Amino acid sequence: MAEPERRGAFGGFIGPRTLLGLVQNTAPWLFAHDRSGELDAPAFRPSEAPSGPQQWRAILRAGERLEPSPDPKPEERTDYFALCLAAHFASAATYVPTDVDSKIRRALWQDAVGSDELPRMRAFALGLALWDLRDVSARIVAIEGVGPVSGHDGERLSVLCGGLVASLEARDQRGARELEEAIDAELAREANAFDRTARAPGLELDLLRLAAILTHNAGDVMQGLAAAVGRPLGAAQLARFGELARERFERYGGAFGRAASLYRELLASEGHRNYPLRKPRALRSDRQFLLPIAPFLDAWGERIATSDRLATPDRAEIVAALVEGCRKVPGQAGYFRALAGFARVHPRGLESPDLAQHHPASVKRALRDPSLRKALAVRRESFEASCAKRARALL
Question: What angle do CA 342, 297, 203 make, to 5 degrees?
Answer without folding.
Answer: 135
